[in-house]
Amino acid sequence: MSATEPRIPRVRLTERGPVLVDGPVEVVLPDGTAMHCDRPVVALCTCRRSRRFPFCDTSHRRRRP
């Protein structure tokens, strides 16, 4: 990819965990709040158990079936 071509964001769905997004990203919450993350890969919580929601803190690992 050349410097003039736009970067195509990559989103990866995981089996039992977060959605992984190539960063940096800006996440807009339902209330309109925007959160920015500069990490090269950002894990977004899908279980809503994270204390850092919308970012994953691995709380899904403590879930019992």
TrEMBL record:
Keywords: 2Fe-2S, Iron, Iron-sulfur, Metal-binding. Residues 22-65 form the Iron-binding zinc finger CDGSH type domain. Pfam families: zf-CDGSH (PF09360). SMART domains: ZnF_CDGSH. This is CDGSH-type Zn-finger protein. It comes from Kitasatospora paracochleata.
